[in-house]
Every structure is written in C-alpha cells, then in structure tokens.
Recover the amino acids of this structure.
C-alpha cells in the first residue's frame, strides 16, 4: 500500500480542486490519501464524491496552532497539527475552527491594506479569487504579489521585507494552543499528528520537549518523512516517536502546482497507518 497523509486542495492553499486532488492521487499510484486543508473540512464532500475506485480517503485537517517554545524563541510561533478521522461537527472543535478561519480573513484583509500602503498593487478581491475556498492564507497573498510583479518568487513574500514574521506587512492572527488542539481532536473522536516539526527552511522547528509535552496531552503521531526534513532529522524523529509511543508518518504535504504536484513523494508505512486508524 502507498499512503500519503498530508495534502491540500484549493479549499485552502493548494491550487487544485478536491476532486482533481483525488484523481491525481490515484494516478500517482496511491491507495490512501488524507485531505488536510488548513482549518477547514470544506473539501471532504467533493473529494468523496469524486473518489476513484481503489483509493481510500482519510478525512483530515491541518489546524493552526501557536506554541511559545518554537524556533528557540520566547515569542509564540506557528505550529501545525494534523487531525484525522474526527467529527467536524463536534461543537467545541467546530467553534474553535470557525474562529481560526474567520480570523484568517480579517488578517489577510489587513495584510492587503498594509501592502497597498507600501505601494504594492494587490487587491482584496484578487486575493479572495485566488483563495476560492473558505480558508484564506498568506500563500494567496503571495500569489497576488507575484502576479502584480512586486516579487519574483513566492519565497520572497515570506521575508521581513513583506509578509514574513515581523515583516512590514505581517499581521498576527488567532491560533489554538496545541495542547488544547490535541484534546479537541481527541474529544471529537480523532487522532492528531504534529506536522513537519523539523522543517528548518520554513521555520517550523520544535524541540523534543515540545513533542513530549504534546504526547503527554494525547498526541498520536509525528510526521517524520516529509520533503523538508533532512535524513538526520528523520532518524532523530523516528527514534523519538519510538520512545514516546507515537506513530511515525510520512507525507508529501502537496499543494498542487505550488509544490510541483508531488503527491506520493513521501509515504506512510501501512502498519503505521493501521495504528493511526486503530487509535481513532
């Protein structure tokens, strides 16, 4: 079995509709795919309706969290938590996810305003068109900046010059405490996995101590095999997962054209997948 447990559609910051994502997953030879859009389950129905024969869809979500121990920095930093097989209508979880999603819109609107003040010709209308779905994020703003000729590559947007942390047009946002997020997912019947905890180039770097804290709160797994993880980091995370009885997963974190349509480039072992399902 070939299993990819982290992917995005245009319901959040991917570039392809959920129906196309599952078709491409099947074409890539996958047997199991998790659709994990940011802070929304809005793509599940379309993906299920278009699901090709032989492909199993794992309903998921990538929840936006903040943890004060990220990056070796005392300030709260972004931590992403993958949730699987939970009830999206569980009232407490649904309320928090809606709050996160609503704040994404307010934040993006303010970032556009700040960019306009910096003479960058982006509009909220265009950012909303690029987002398409209900979850608006910085990648949509970056794409609008690229279209407008303000930057030459997407990466340039995520710097202090523009919308990177501490940047001239950066705006903070509401996000869940990750311990609470783990508990909310458990309360909704699901399992949780910390996403790309050693993605140094993207700024998602969390220590063993942070993962231990989340494991004590009920974290189920850790994303080990990820395109942004080095071989030494993968070995260290795999050893940590074994020590903490966490499930080691692997995934592409595909965002469509933004990441080169890489579904299936990293996968989860069948026994790890079965363990995740058994713990849900």
């Amino acid at each position: 079995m070939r299993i990819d447990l982290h992917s995005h559609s245009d319901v959040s910051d991917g570039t392809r509709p959920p129906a196309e994502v599952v078709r491409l997953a099947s074409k890539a030879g996958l047997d199991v795919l998790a659709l994990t859009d940011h802070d929304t389950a809005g793509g599940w129905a379309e993906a299920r309706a278009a699901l090709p024969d032989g492909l199993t869809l794992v309903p998921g979500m990538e929840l936006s969290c903040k943890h004060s121990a990220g990056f070796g920095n005392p300030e709260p930093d972004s931590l992403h938590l993958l949730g699987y097989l939970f009830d999206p209508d569980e009232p407490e979880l649904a309320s928090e996810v809606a709050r996160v999603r609503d704040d994404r819109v307010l934040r993006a609107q303010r970032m556009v305003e700040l960019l306009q003040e910096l003479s960058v010709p982006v509009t909220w209308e265009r950012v909303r068109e690029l987002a398409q779905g209900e979850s608006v994020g910085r990648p949509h703003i970056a794409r609008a900046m690229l279209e407008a000729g303000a930057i030459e590559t997407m990466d340039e947007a995520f710097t202090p010059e523009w919308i990177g942390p501490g940047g001239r047009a950066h705006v903070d946002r509401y996000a869940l405490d990750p311990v609470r997020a783990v508990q909310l997912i458990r309360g909704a019947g699901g399992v949780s996995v910390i996403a790309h905890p050693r993605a140094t180039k993207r700024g998602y770097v969390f220590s063993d101590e942070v993962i231990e804290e989340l494991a004590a709160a009920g974290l189920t797994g850790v994303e080990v095999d990820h395109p942004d993880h080095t071989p030494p980091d993968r070995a260290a995370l795999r050893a940590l997962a074994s020590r903490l009885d966490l499930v080691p997963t692997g995934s592409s974190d595909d965002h469509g054209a933004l990441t080169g349509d890489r579904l299936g480039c990293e996968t989860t072992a069948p026994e790890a997948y079965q363990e995740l399902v058994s713990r849900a």
About this structure: The mean pLDDT is 94. The beta strands are 3-4, 32-35, 56-67, 77-84, 191-194, 198-199, 204-205, 221-225, 247-250.
